[in-house]
Design a protein that fits this description.
Length: about 270
């Protein structure tokens, strides 16, 4: 999540929400692009070249492959896509997090793909913020973007007004300085769908009013859907038998679709 971590951060998961989401049409068709290595989910061994979807996890996630959001995405995409989920916590240590080197590595990885870009970039919480940063910096390396409960305005909410001498209690100075250099609310340059719960808060991700302002400022390429009764962890949307799971599934399918598909006021997808 996007809140200030303790010195021993622990990722909390919750399964106690209710959700209502305006229906999205299930969108079809994914083709082209390619994948060659690492972190495949739901696929059998094959020499077939598959599109690559990049998944970016939440802050403090210690086992990315079993993250409930990633598992749900991989289940929906099945074996037709390769889901890559690199960590920005080297060695699993949150205090070693460095954003610039991680974003550089993602750029290199995208350019090495036969298609030269990721089919989709999907992020949850802090990962959604990084997905938004990545598409702003590298719109040519991204197909579509799906932001799930993004954490924004992170510096304002966690570090502004906090003396530098106190930073080390929570995170290294280098972490804070890199975060301060990133945009608080990235400009949306690729077709983007954002799902957010109306029970999300600044203590975990972001209060909904922040996300609404951000989406309104980027409404030509960004559509926001607010889920009633849903908190930062997006349950029950991610569960196959969960209420309104069909809307979550449609959003994931939209992220890997191609063609000119109108979403909200977005004209060119």
């Amino acid at each position: 999540p996007g809140h200030l971590p303790s010195s021993r951060p622990v990722l909390r998961r919750g399964w106690s929400c209710r959700a209502m989401l305006a229906p999205l049409a299930a969108l079809a068709g994914a083709r082209g692009l390619a994948a060659t290595r690492v972190a495949t989910v739901g696929a059998t061994a094959s020499a077939e070249v598959r599109p690559v979807v990049l998944y970016l996890h939440g802050l403090g996630e210690d086992d990315v492959d079993t993250c409930h959001v990633r598992v749900a995405i991989a289940r929906i995409l099945g074996g037709s896509f390769e889901v890559r989920s690199p960590t920005y916590h080297p060695g699993g240590d949150i205090r070693t997090t460095r954003f610039n080197s991680f974003l550089d590595a993602l750029r290199n990885e995208a350019r090495e793909l036969p298609a030269g870009r990721f089919a989709a970039v999907i992020g949850w919480s802090m990962g959604a913020f990084l997905a938004a940063v990545f598409q702003e910096q590298n719109p040519d390396l991204v197909g579509r973007v799906l932001l799930l409960a993004p954490a924004i305005d992170i510096v304002e909410r966690n570090w502004d007004g906090r003396p530098e001498c106190e930073w080390e209690k929570y995170m290294p100075k280098e972490y804070v300085l890199e975060l301060k250099a990133l945009p608080a609310r990235p400009t949306i340059k690729r077709p983007t769908l954002c799902l957010h719960g109306d029970k999300d808060t600044d203590s975990l991700g972001s209060d909904p009013w922040r996300i609404k302002q951000w989406a309104a400022a980027n409404d030509k390429l960004m559509k926001l859907d607010i889920f009633e009764g849903v908190n930062h962890y997006l349950d029950p949307l991610t569960r196959p038998n969960g209420r309104n799971h069909t809307q979550f599934k449609a959003a994931v399918e939209w992220s890997v679709a191609q063609g000119n598909v109108g979403v909200s006021r977005c004209q060119i997808f």
